[in-house]
Amino acid sequence: xxxxxxxxxxxxxxxxxxxxxxxxxxxxxxxxxxxxxxxxxxxxxxxxxxxxxxxxxxxxxxxxxxxxxxxxxxxxxxxxxxxxxxxxxxxxxxxxxxxxxxxxxxxxxxxxxxxxxxxxxxxxxxxxxxxxxxxxxxxxxxxxxxxxxxxxxxxxxxxxxxxxxxxxxxxxxxxxxxxxxxxxxxxxxxxxxxxxxxxxxxxxxxxxxxxxxxxxxxxxxxxxxxxxxxxxxxxxxxxxxxxxxxxxxxxxxxxxxxxxxxxxxxxxxxxxxxxxxxxxxxxxxxxxxxxxxxxxxxxxxxxxxxxxxxxxxxxxxxxxxxxxxxxxxxxxxxxxxxxxxxxxxxxxxxxxxxxxxxxxxxxxxxxxxxxxxxxxxxxxxxxxxxxxxxxxxxxxx
Length: 397
Prior knowledge:
There is one protein chain. The chain is of the alpha+beta class and about 400 residues long. Helix content is about 20%, strand content about 35%. It folds into three domains: about 5-225, P-loop containing nucleotide triphosphate hydrolases (Rossmann fold, 3-Layer(aba) Sandwich), CATH 3.40.50; about 235-305, no CATH class; about 310-395, CATH 2.40.50.140. The chain has helices spanning about 35-45, 95, 105-115, 130-145, 160-180, 190-195, 215-220, 225-230, 270, 300-305, and strands at about 5-10, 15-20, 25-30, 50-55, 60-65, 70, 80, 150-155, 185, 200-205, 205-215, 235, 240-245, 250-255, 255-260, 285-290, 295-300, 310, 320, 330-340, 345-355, 360-370, 385-390, 395. A hairpin with a 2-residue loop joins strand 4 and strand 5. Helix 3 (about 105-115) crosses helix 4 (about 130-145). It is globular, with a radius of gyration of 26 Å.
């Protein structure tokens, strides 16, 4: 039971190719604008027809290109909440809610959802008289009144202010708990996705890159696009220096072990030296150089295969005026402050990496919660030290 999707649809210059399952859960599709999120929902709802593939909901085939099946939207039993709610302007609140309910049940069903969504006293109002939050409540009530087997939400919170957004996040969770309908929603907001979903998939350029539990996907987004859309502000390319045997298995972190950072790229001879510490061979390792951040590190060959870049989240970076204050970090690099961006509860610092000759390289963005930030308010151009731990690196394709 649940939803199974495996479809393709092409337009000039763009192809949607996505596959995932939704069970009894809230499943999110996270991606940037134009990546195919809304198109995926429209294909499931029957508004758009895929070129090929298969869509199955609770063992009912909604679409199958090989079998020639393509159920119309009204037969799919899928509730769709559009970004702009799509309420009928010439109908009252009560009429909107009951529009898809059989006449013999309409009065009781409408009364129930008026009560469930705290719309008492608004039954006779027109949509034009409602606030944005009230319009969304009416749209949710109308969708649920039709008793769908699946709920689709298209950027449900994008048009709301922060306070109302929080309230409606709670309402969506309440809808799931109360009605036990699987929910599939799409968003470009990592915060909404993390707050609401049980599992998620990242979509980029029409392709689903990564699907899994939200905690796992945020911890390991797998691709550079996935890292960006989950909020990683620091991504840099890496290159192989040389293959070698790791100097000590105990020095390695999961898939990555550190080499003390330096301002010069290791030469082939230096990187290929082998230290024998026991009779048993150590796992094969590869040495990498990151030009943008002026650092080198080692990673196990089998776990670094296909990895083209590393990322590190802004809150994982240490910063200090004195290098000695970063002694706990395996890698320390020089930096020069470009600009600080104070926010209500944290400060972002944009820092360029500097080599031993004073040349500027790539940028690292560091975030410090206000309560934990011990640095003074520094002017642009201030010299700093940055601490990084290879165990915090995201390994990205």
